[in-house]
Amino acid sequence: MKNRLLWTLWLIIAAGTVALFWVIDALKQRTEQQMSFIAEHHQVELLRYGAEAERVLLEDGEAALSVWLEKLQRDEHTWASVSTSSVAPLAGSYLSTQFLEGFRLGRNVEWKIHLYFKDNPIMDVPFADGQTHFLIQLPQRMRPGTYFPYAHLGIQIALPFVILCLVTWVLYRHVMRPLQQLERATRQFSDGQFDVRVKTLLGKRNDEITALAETFDQMAERTGNLVINQRQLLSDLSHELRTPLTRLDMAVDCFEEGVQTDSTIDRLRHESAVMRDLVDDALMLAWLNNENPRLTSDDFDLAELLSVICEDARFEYPDRHLDLLLPEQGLIQGSSQRALGQAVENIVRNALNHTPPGKSVTVALVLEADGYRVTVRDEGVGVPEHLLADIFRPFFRVDKSRTDSTQTALPVAGKKHGGFGLGLALARRQIAAVGGAVIAFNHQIAGSDRVAGLQIDIVLPTRW
What we know:
Protein name: histidine kinase
Radius of gyration: 49 Å
CATH superfamily of the largest domain: Histidine kinase-like ATPase, C-terminal domain
GO cellular component, one term: plasma membrane
GO molecular function, one term: ATP binding
Strand content: 5-15%
CATH architecture of the largest domain: 2-Layer Sandwich
Enzyme class: transferase
Transmembrane segments: 6-27, 150-172
Distance between the termini: 30 Å
Structural class: alpha+beta
């Protein structure tokens, strides 16, 4: 679902608003309902007044009742009276039993009192004869809803304020908690913790902030890998440069001592070329890693490109057999002939370097459903299975102690000037830049578990 965070916020705000109005209305009605009835002890007291008025009238007469009423009115600061009721129907109509039983001159003490009326209601306590009624205007001290204005104020102002604060806190937690984790991860990343990730900290959450966390994780992974790779590349490059620099120093010492032979000059040329190729490859690899370019400028025939590369390789390695299996044509659109040619050349040279004299290297081009597959298979000693992924790392070399005792491990990758472990690493990045992928695995002798050499497959799209 798009805009998941928007929908979540909308749901929280809308639901919170509806809940707010519902709670306010429900509490207001409930509070008003509970505060609209005379307190039970006051009801008992009013009923007691009525019973006392009936007793005084029956035992002491109206004069005594008059004195008692005056004292009651004075004590309660209200009006009170004892009256009789006589209702006569007209036009031949009659009074129903229900009416006669429920007829009152005032309100029953159990009835609801309207809190919004200014004047206190008249309460009616009927005598036993049903015709005489004790009437009293409800004393102010007995009026219910004394604290209703304060309750009304709390319901209308305090309660909405609390609920809105709660909703705001929920929204803040929902939005800011992942942002705080992202901010913490950013600070850790800036401090050099390149393995920090945010997406896993968000659990099952899935919204725009999750997408931001995924973007951050991708950025952190790529940037962290770039920094680590550059540090490793710089360290390895400085290490690899020591050997040709040492040889150059030795050649310079020979010149200073007056020993100027053809071998010394050849050594200078060789080491200079080695260093130039090493620096060029390192700069190219660093550029590909940093920029992550998409090389899509050329349309060319892949079969023709492989043919030219293999022809040059046969000239450089006359003591190896190079078998070429190509279709008549292999058109590729939107690629880079230069980058792909350099990558294939490095892989083919790597295969020839690891193939003993008299053995064969096979280069084949096959058209598949979604592109091309270039296969380069040698007849060398292969690579230990757990190191197959590492041969594409810059300056990686297979440790001889890890290979079979009957085999001799040679440096992985390399160019015609010796091999520094950059060839396959550079080839993989160049192939990735044209939309392809490279895979390495050991191939075996048919019907046997014995390794017959290394095979590297290059998978390329016909158009990227």
